[in-house]
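Q: Structure for this?
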Amino acid sequence: DIQMTQSPSSLSASVGDRVTITCRASQSVSSYLNWYQQKSGEAPKLLISGAINLQSGVPSRFSGSGSGTDFTLTISSLHPEDFATYYCQQSYSTWTFGQGTKVEVK
Amino acid sequence: QITLRESGPTLVKPTQTLTLTCTFSGFSLSTSGVAVGWIRQPPGKALEWVALIYWDDDKRYNPSLESRVTITKDTSRNQVVLTVTNVDPGDAATYYCSHLQTNGWSSYFNYWGQGALVTVSS
C-alpha cells in the first residue's frame, strides 16, 4: 500500500498569507496526485487533479506542483473562505488520502 | 447535473452488518469508464477510501477492510450498495459516496454526497 504523509498537520495563518502544504508518498505516484478541501461539516471538494490541474471554478490563488514522491499545494494569498482542512490523495494504486492539514486562523 | 445521496441506519450494534445505499443521478453506471466509490471519515479524523465499483462490475477494496466489505450496484435503479459485516466502534464514521472521474490512468473523486453519519454502539 502507498502511504501519504502531509506536513504540517496544522498551521495558523492570517488573511493574505502565502500558505504551503506538502505531501509525500511512500513510493512514486508519478503525477497521480489530487488535492481536496474540506470545510467543517461538509463533504470534500476537489481542488486539483493530476498534481497541477486546477478544477473549474477553483480560484487561481490555489496551485499544485510536484511529481514522483513530493508534492505541494500553495495558496498564494489566503482568503477568509480558505480556512479548512486540506487532503492530498494518490490515485496511482487504488486510492489513499493523507492525514490532512488544518489551516486555522492565526 | 451529477448528484449523489447516501442513506442507511444512523445506529448499528457491534457485530451487526451495516448496509448503506448511494442513490445517484446525472450519470449512468452502465457507461464505460464510470465508477462510484465509498470513502469514510471517523469523527475528527482523516478520509479513508473503502471500496469502489466500475461500470463493468470490476470492484476494488481497501485491503484493511476487504474481508468485511462488499460493494454492489443496481444499474437500473442508479444505486450502489456498501455492506460492512461484523461492525465495531472503529467503523463509526461519516460515509460518503462519490463519483470517480477517470482521465487516462489518472482518477479523482469529483462529485460527493453529503455523507451519512453512522454510530456503532450497543
